[in-house]
Amino acid sequence: MTELTGQAPVQTGGSVLSAEGITKSFGPVTALRGVDLHVEPGEVLGLVGDNGAGKSTLVKIITGYHQPDSGQLYMEGQPVSFKSVQDARQHGIETVFQDLALVDELSVYHNLFLNRELTVGGPLRWLSNGRMRQAAQEYLEDIKVNIPSVDSPVEKLSGGQRQAIAVARATRQEGVKVLLLDEPLAAMGAKETSLIIELIKGLAKDRGVSMLVIDHNYTHIFELCDRVNVVQQGRVTLDQKTSETSLVELTEFMVSSYREQVRAGE
Amino acid sequence: MKNTWLMRLGQTQELVMALIGVALAIFFAAYSSAFANSDNAPTLAAYVAPIMFFAVAEVFVLTLGEIDLSVGQVYVLSPFLVVFLNDTGLNLVVCIVAALLIAALIGWINGIITVWLRVPSFITTLGTVFALKGIVLLASDGIQVNPAGTGSLASVLGGWSFSEIIWALVVAVIAHLIFRRTVFGLHITAVGGNQIASGEAGVKVGRVKIWCFVLCAFLGGLIGIFDGYHIGSLNPGTDGLQLMFYGVAAAVVGGTALTGGRGTMVGAAIGALVLGILEDGFNIIGVNAFAYQLVLGLAILGAMVLNIQLERVRAGRSSAGKGSMARAVLAVGGAGGDGPADVGPGDDHDRTGTAAGAGSEVK
Lengths: 266, 363
What we know:
The complex is a heterodimer of chains A (266) and B (363). Chain A has helices at residues 55-62, 85-90, 108-112, 129-142, 159-172, 190-207, 218-224, 247-265; strands spanning 17-26, 29-39, 44-48, 70-75, 78-80, 93-96, 119-120, 126-127, 178-182, 210-214, 227-232, 235-241. By secondary structure, chain A is of the alpha/beta class. In chain A, strand 4 (70-75) and strand 5 form a beta hairpin. Chain A is globular. Chain B is mostly helical. In chain B, 72% of the residues lie in helices and 0% in strands. In chain B, helix 4 packs antiparallel against helix 12 and helix 5 runs antiparallel to helix 6. Chain B is globular.
């Protein structure tokens, strides 16, 4: 793969988010050596790679937590640079934090509407609980999230249900274009896993929100993602549609490139 | 959904405390005819009203996971402020309004020190307690004075036997509406429950906190003025801390969690009623004043244990053999079966799982 710098031509094809030639060093340690990546509207892109491959640095650059040394990010073809997490979010990049996203003590519908409450009475900001409850119910039915009641506090829900609410909430955020999901299927039972997979796929397709999924479990990646990118030694070394590759092929690729690394190191 | 109002009520500590209050009232009434006597009503009201004020005031900050130790001292200060201002020749109403604004300002200072300078509210307000105490003693020279003004205004504010309890109930109702029915109230619970998530959602965490401190101190100032007119003399040496702790006790006994995220104004009012009944009842049946403190302490501890046990059942985290008392109470309340059953096995694991770092951290 060639080293690209910021001068590369603007990508066409309407990627919602793309990165070109992203590099990042921390002192003597080079984390990223020119990463190219693109996410299409409504696409679920999986990001895999070993620990220390640069995956987390890349994600932190996309979320505005770090700034790249060189290279360029584009949102819908327009060059952007995120100065902060807030900045990235204003451009429509949201992150779902499994445990930080929800207020346990509040009901499901209050969580869904937190800080975007439906109100009456003008400046008094009187809560329209009835309308919020109904809207939450309809929305959750719409995206096929099944919970006992929108009235129950979030702390009463199972891990999968909580994750579903967190994802649903982030997707409802105004102007959200890309959702970052960090191991969205961690610590979940088989049934809940398949529910979350359906939910993420459905939201991406129906709402046109692109999903960037980081996961160590290749089986999950194949079930969940349209396309997979492998990050190794600070570069994207494989970019393939999941329909055009297989679990065996991906595993083989990872193993053989690992062997190459070992050989190169000797 | 089978989540009827009856079941929701049964799951609340408010109901349990209300039942305890009724039981206590029946006990005292049976023990001594003086308790149920109409002559006792003003006495009982005088016990309950200040505690209710303090409890309601504290719920605002306790729900945030904070505490305001200084509200009792604001209570001591505010009627003195009215007197001092009135001495300069200002109109009494103006003096009262000014005193309340100063009380609110004290709350604001508590708030900004806690929020902006990141001093834990326990420490911030502990400092305020002593500072205010010093101010009151210096300004009054340690001498008792009479509240400013008499007549109909004084009687509306607190002079009449029942004006204080009526004010307390009105304040409790308004506080309940703010707490349960407004965006601000929802944000109090949200910030107390999960500050990071609330901030991530765009809730102005600092502003919510500062407003709660302002409200708390304002209510302390208000009851200080009312109680000044009720008692008829102002003592600069009044122990504000003890009054404040009665309020905290009533709030907690009523179901507000000291850890934040869970508060109830109805519970605070009922808790105040229960503590008032206890205090009044013990006086009437002639329990030794020293023994009264002991019994009150045990009652608070008992209520706290019940509170925590109920919480475990509600959150479905009870392990076998524990919380059976609370579960029995719930069963009586008609709420059995709703709690632990619908929590999935992955739940606890999930909570402690990922993303424990800062808001922007991604693995």
